[in-house]
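Appendix B. Worked example

We walk through a single record from start to finish. Start with the input: the chain for Diguanylate cyclase (GGDEF)-like protein, Paenibacillus hunanensis, length 397.
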Amino acid sequence: MSFNLDMKTIFISLVFGHIFTVILINAYRKHTVPDRSVNAFFLSKLIQAIAWALLIVRGVVPELLSIVLANTLLFVGAALETSALLMLQQVFSKRLKRLYLIGTVICIAGFALIYGLGVSEGARIVYASVATAMFLFYPVYYMTTDRAASTLKRLMGILYGIVALSLLLRAGAAIQLGDQVGLFTQGMYQSFSFIALYLIMILGNTGYVLLSKEQADAELLRIASYDEMTGVLNRRTFMVESRNMIHQLAMRQSQVSFILFDVDSYKTINDTYGHFTGDRVLQDMTDRLKERLSELTGERYIFGRYGGDEFAVLLPDVDEAKAGGIAEQLRLTVANSDSHVLPVPYTISLGVVSVQAQRNIQMNTLYELSDHALYNAKRAGKNQVAIYNQEQAEAAL
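Next comes the structure step. The output line below is what the pipeline stores for this chain.
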């Protein structure tokens, strides 16, 4: 049984695979805001299609076109495709961009040099395989080691790692067997190479689309869950996450605390300095309090905006005494801040309620009790912390 595959048929399938991808991306780009990642991926597919088309006519056109130019385009295409992958994940820094640019130039110049020296095809295969694998090293490292990586991203990292390994194995085989592993030498190695090339194209095209979809879904979820101006949870998401947390705490018969606070004399700030300054006050406040809450609770808190200048914090496994101490630390964080970017100092008042977690606790009840405590803090002169009595609070639930 023969496993030999027709060279031109495989190359044509690669050309059309990349062209169809280019057509689909072009149709998509007409209705979206220009994106660096999509543009780089589009260009990589176009360049790769031209490269494989040049290889189809090898023997018909001069070798400078079918070998040197074709491999040059493949290097550029690989660099752009992996760059697009990194741009999509927002890790393509200026330093990495510079390294990729230098690496691409070195790959192209090196290949042209060894071709000009008249070295064997086996040596060119070794060089091209190692050079192409080089572009995959950082994407593989990042996608497989990123702690926040999704299952899809980690799987793609592993698959790209297999691709890089196969390229290095091909280089090793070329060292041992020379021209026998060339794409234009019929045999088992040629067939395996063609199958690998086709699978790599499918991995690159499908993987990029799926990662793009995953990124878009994550962004939509972020927009739907967070307050755009301050970066904390919006009211709906805060209430959902708080309910879920309370249910978990109820199973452990643990305590939960709810802190409600707002900016003292916020309307006066808006009326005197304008809404732009008022917005900056809220942004400055939430930035400071998020950092302080992380220090005080070890990231164990839920922080959300209820509306206007009113914010809430849910503290799991925190009793009344500890909640009062945390609230006081938050008050001091704002009161003692020395912001040079704001034209006005500001303070906050906080109302605290702590109860035994129960499954039937209503978020509106916790809000009303803490709001009553907040009212007492305002009445006491503002820039205060007031605590609603726990026994009375649990009786009201």
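Two observations about the output. DSSP finds 13 helices and five strands in the chain. The chain has a mean pLDDT of 86.
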